[in-house]
Amino acid sequence: MNTAAIEVAGLRKRFGGTTALDGMTFTVRPGRVTGFAGPNGAGKSTTMRVIVGLDAPDAGTALVGGRPYQSLRRPLTHVGALLDAAALQPGRSARNHLLWLAHSQGLTASRVDEVVAQSGLQGAIRRKAGGYSLGMRQRLGIAAALLGDPPVLMLDEPFNGMDPEGIVWMRGFLRSLAVEGRAVLVSSHLMSELQDTADHLVVIGRGRVIADASVAELTADASGGRVSVRTAMPGRAVEVLSAAGAEAAATGPGTLIITGSGAEQVAMLLSRNAVPFSEVSAHRATLEEAYLELTRDAVEFRAAAPGGEAR
Ligand SMILES: Nc1ncnc2c1ncn2[C@@H]1O[C@H](COP(=O)(O)OP(=O)(O)OP(=O)(O)O)[C@@H](O)[C@H]1O
User: Fold this and answer.
1) How confident is the model over 159-186, as pLDDT tens digits?
2) Whose Cα sits closest to atom 28 in ligand 1?
3) 42 touches ligand 1 (CB under 6 Å)
4) What is the phi-psi region of residue 36: left when phi exceeds 0, alpha when psi lies from -120 to 50, beta otherwise?
5) Reported ipTM
6) Going by CA atoms, what residue is nearest to atom 4 of ligand 1?
7) CA distance linking residue 114 with residue 124, whole number of Å
8) How far apart are alpha carbons 35 and 56 in whole angstroms?
9) Can you give the pTM of this predicted structure?
10) Which of 67, 81, 125, 196 has the most Cβ atoms closer than 10 angstroms to its Cβ?
11) 58 CA to centre of ligand 1 in angstroms
């Protein structure tokens, strides 16, 4: 169960003068959702395209279930990929699109009905795919990726264009695929989408891996021993804590983040000085904070801050 479902090693790829992949190396394991994150242009789509043989790397290897994609017979039964939800024949009904794909791989029409039900498209399946919203196209892409009941799924920005209800559905759906034992690689540049979905995160920047760790490890590292405080007297709390040598910074109305002192010490100082508080707890960084810290130096395009220079 612990073998690598996708294994990418030393991938390099240039497009003219642009280095898209610069030694990309990571593995994706079964039974978990692996988030694949990085700033615009980091190389997420190119890596995924190389894995399924749509782009040829200049160097390095990409294996699915231990074999190069090109050597797989009936590849849809090995790996399902959603790479570009817009790539559809607009005049064809969604059902015919899936039937055509199924027949090309020796799969039955009843399998089409199963994946249509799984992806929640029953009501719209006879409509022309050209009239689908982006969210519906994502569902259709998921249905297509699932056709061959593959042990490996690779989805490029599947949350893109989905409404809040669709995002909640997608999160639960990706989790259920991992619980079934499948390896799920899902790219996104919105950490909020991955926060409650991914078990593991591969963060990339400028064509290479910056971090490859569990979501729990990444957020614990970014938490950095800080303490969150909620108080009706933030000014007084800052005074008391600063006098004791801790650093206190306001993060919102009535909320502070403290560095340089543990939670127990902070609670004791506030109590002793009669500063009321409703919460003192170890700060738990969001995945977004962890991600921003990791990718600070790897952002290719960053808007200039108002009145300042791009960092
Ligand atoms: N066919 C191509 N021709 C030229 N340059 C390309 C091509 N495909 C990708 N690139 C370049 O390679 C780099 C990596 O692009 P890629 O699409 O893989 O990044 P990404 O992480 O998926 O970005 P995004 O989050 O914006 O989708 C970028 O600089 C991009 O402009």
Assistant:
1) 988 888 889 999 999 999 999 999 999 9
2) 41
3) yes
4) beta
5) 0.96
6) 15
7) 14
8) 23
9) 0.83
10) 81
11) 15
